[in-house]
Amino acid sequence: MSSPRLKIGLYASLVMAIFVLASYKLYRRTDARAPQKDEVLIKAMLQGLTVAHYQPEKVDDTFSKRVFDLYLKRIDYNKKFLLQPDIAQLRKYQTAIDDQVKAGTHEFLDLSTQLLNQRMKDVQGIYREVLTQPFDFTKEESFETEPDKMTFAADKAAQREEWRKYLKYQTMSRVSEMMDEQAKRKEKASAPTASISKTAVVVPNEPYRTPAEMEIEARKRVLKYFDSQFQDMMQTDDPERLALYANVIANTYDPHTEYFAPRDKDKFDEQMTGQFEGIGASLQEKDGQIKVSDLIPGSASYRQGDLKAGDIIMRVAQGAAEPVSVEGLRLDKAVALIKGKKGTEVRLTVKKTDGSTQVIPIVRDVVIIEETFAKSATIDDNGKKVGYIRLPGFYADFNDNGGRSSATDVKKELEKLTKENVQGVVLDLRSNGGGSLQDAVEMAGLFVENGPVVQVRSSQGAPNILNDRDPRVQYSGPLVVLVNKYSASASEILAAAIQDYKRGIIMGSASTYGKGTVQRIFDLDDAMPAEFNNIKPFGSLKLTTQKFYRINGGSTQFKGVVPDIILPDLYSYLDQGEKESDYPLKWDEISPARYRPWSGAPAVAKLSEASKKRVDNSESFKLINGMVQRMIKRKNDTMVSLKLDTYRAEQLLAKAESDKYEQLQKAAQPLNIAPLTADLRQLGSDTVQVNRATRFTRNLKKDITLREAVAVVKDQI
Known about the structure:
By secondary structure, the protein is of the alpha+beta class.
């Protein structure tokens, strides 16, 4: 019998074959006109969506309205640029977009781009003019912060007034921050010398600044901020506009069906594999300059040694070619010039922190992003040793069978923890957005005997059951799986399987994200006839081809996984998840698979009751509950006062709540968590890498959710 990976591969190959045949038929030309890239891209994308999407949509007026609404939301989410007359002009195309994409035209895209470009120029004039005059923060007026409650301005006068309030809000928030900073400095300056931190910078006799003086400085900062933002926006070119439009069309099928321009596909591959080809420097853009903020240990730039944090990159040359200036260039465009294939040389002209200029040649190499990969630690709690594994994502290198995979890495971490004689394990999937479906299946098999893990169904036919076929159990002791609202996709598959088998306890937010769909990525170049070679590359289409279901028959789509033990969570007030996204597929269920629950199933009710008592008596969790309720109230009250005294009072109240929580955290007994000795020994004397390894555990010492997970593990020992 074929393996799950083979079955999935055969399905993808079949879809691609259909896609290619359809493309040949679609592009059999009847005229001598040269094909345009934008026309070919949109038509190819629609063909792929029609033949391969799990729930294909009819390309009709309903489709057209969905594209219209979503595109306007994407290009002007805060309704700050387009006017009502602009919307009226665009509305003429509300039911015509389907006809345009079939004909290979894009009048709606062209008009919206033209209008948006003009309005951006208009708004640039507005904010620069408004910011020349001081704001009156004693006047009673307010500003709406929720885009769904905003409307497009009726005319230029209304737009100017809306921007005046927006700029006043931005300036006021900065004045408030400056007042806080001045109060902190005054407090430090008046504190006894012995109590001042050695690292604290105290300026003696620093002059007191009035709110009016701060307002002048704040307006300068706001002007600088918007000049930078508009500089970036005005660098958006036609291919980027087309990519945005193509992605909107894809997103109207479901939130996870996407168009990837070639550069975006590279970013996706980096996230999935935890590696890319380049020099290994983290960059940031500030004041029109590209600055080095950090170097990745072991990377090409780290080994070469001349590039340092704080250096400003002025020009970039590909080997011996003529350098290209990156000053004033948008960060992503500068990064695209610096990254490149392994073995190629890039020459960076940099300004050093001492003011000197240096040309630094670096041969690009594979850069490993260690933060992507699974890590483990041990927690000693009153003589009980608990293993901890953090899994940021379900990574896999689909282009290299010998590449790293999350299932293999978690297996290795379990082996190391077993050698440490841990008495229980906490697997942390919080904020793990998913990734490789096959790795989720293999990972479940590390904790259970062979059997079904997940059911995968296409739009037609019976579901395909993906099984763990290895009867060995890597780890059989007490297990707690931590999840939150941002645990999605493969995280939900693994959590659901552990829950259905009654193999461990799922703990965390009220529910996980709710992404229960399977995507495949198709390279559009592979589907194109040879006549289009001169206008490639086209990018890729990631589309939803299947839905997955728990072995109990229910889908995780839309609803997510509900934990066995629900803990108070600061994410609780956020409207995040699949159900809040645009055009999600709905929940349904199928027949359950045949499986046998774990013989040593944990006593969920008893463990939940014990956890509830601890949580109810925890001052930290009580405070979180109170903060969540106040956050919900503030989130629903979207009108913000533009009177400084009123705004300050609200901010100080929020800060007092936050300070109280921080004080409780500081007072709490820290978890005794540390990286594995074997891991630190392997890093040797490289202090940068050792510091990174210890930073991983340092941030977990005051994690109250992890502390409660450890307590639940101890209840089972």
